[in-house]
Design brief:
The chain is an all-alpha fold.
């Protein structure tokens, strides 16, 4: 078996991806430039809903499920609901209540509030 010949360059990094409307790109850049700055005042920050006005719970659910490489059927089994129930939530036909959001969050490793 071959030994690793290259030092990993990704150690200590995470991948961050954003999908936002083109017209909001400058707002995202501004928000990211101030991220982690110790002296950022509240007046300098930009509310995330202003940057991503079209974001909704069904998108969050689809994205988190995709990130965890789960099918609707697998996710449904893990949280104890039918696959149809997951599909309806992902298509905005069924609301995601607080208790359901907490069950989803536990399995999908996210804060439950993204589903509310």
């Amino acid at each position: 078996m071959l030994a690793h010949t290259k030092k990993q360059t990704t150690t200590g990094y995470i991948e961050v991806r954003y999908r936002v409307p083109v017209e909001n790109l400058d707002k995202v850049k501004k928000a990211m430039a101030g991220y982690g700055a110790e002296e950022t005042s509240e007046s300098e920050s930009i509310p995330w809903r202003e940057v991503c006005p079209d974001f909704n719970a069904s998108q969050a659910l689809q994205g988190a499920r995709y990130r965890e490489s789960l099918t609707q059927k697998e996710l449904a089994r893990l949280i104890g609901v039918s696959q149809t129930h997951i599909s309806e939530m992902e298509h905005g036909k069924r609301p995601i209540g607080k208790e359901m959001a907490k069950r989803l969050a536990k399995v999908l490793k996210v804060d439950y509030r993204v589903f509310l």
